[in-house]
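Quick one: structure for this chain?
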Amino acid sequence: MRFLMAGGGTGGHVIPALAVARELKARGHEPFFVGTAAGLEAKLVPEAGFAIEFVEIGGLKRVGLTRTLRTLVQLPLATAGMVARLGRWRPAAIFSMGGYAAGPVVLAAVVRRIPMVLMEPNAMPGMTNRWIGRVAGRALVNFEETVRYFPRGKAELTGIPVRPEFFAIPAQPRGERLSVLITGGSRGSRTLNNAARESWPLFRSAGFQVRLVHQTGPEAYAELARDFAAGGIDGQVAPFIDDMPAAFAAADLVVSRSGAGAVAEIAAAGKAAILVPFPFAADDHQTRNAEALARAGAARLVADREFTGKRLFDEVGALAGEPGAIERTGEAARKFARPGAAARAADILEELGRAGSIPRGASAPL
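Got it. Here's what it folds into:
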């Protein structure tokens, strides 16, 4: 069977879809992607060996009036074109990660009565997934509280795909020298970078036994590497960490943004974390993700505007100074781990693909 994988823009949309596509391919199916030429999918999908078709569409959230008006003009045209393309491609079912790149695909799928499975990685569903959840065959969610956003019986708590290496990281007691991993994602985070640099003299003057490993992103790397080398702190900075599971395994504590992928990796690895949500994420979903872990004692949450070097130093010191706090927090995080998400998504796609079109009488979301 052929399966269309829709969604893109960021790694949080593309990487889980790639994991499901690999599972489908291993089962003898033919997955292919639809995304935008400007999104990360344009690079990652061909590198993974999958075909990709492009749609011209922009976002509607936090993009300004001009971009919003342009998208509103593009949406019906892109959807009409996608209706025709789906007639040629004839996929058995569609897998949507949401995001603006998925909009024309899922709307066209309603017209063509093609069954759909959506995966919602965040605690607060995005606009596209909220709309399409009314007609999708199944909504696969990463947080228990997300179930309430979808019709009764539609949502299933599966988690999102995470590399198996993260699940294989064993629980271990912290050493005498606390190992802290700081990462703002592949592009880095200005807030995390600045706070880390401000914290170095505080750790040094306090005689705090700490090792810092910091993924800076490419733009800030040269300046931070120079300052770190002169800072007298044990550890290293890198523009990008190729083997992130190994970096997690070596860490006692992770300082991170709270995108769905980062949160899922923290849970799979069972690591204590200080989460600093990106304040401009659509629907403030990073804050909702971090709140879900913080309520369960699985992470500390600090607002972006409050995250300074002093706050980083204080939060690390508080966790390190309370006996067993880091271990307890990591154990609580592991309860959010959901192995087997890609396999379960593939199971449901096969089931809906064999069943055929979406049920008659379902209403369109718009």
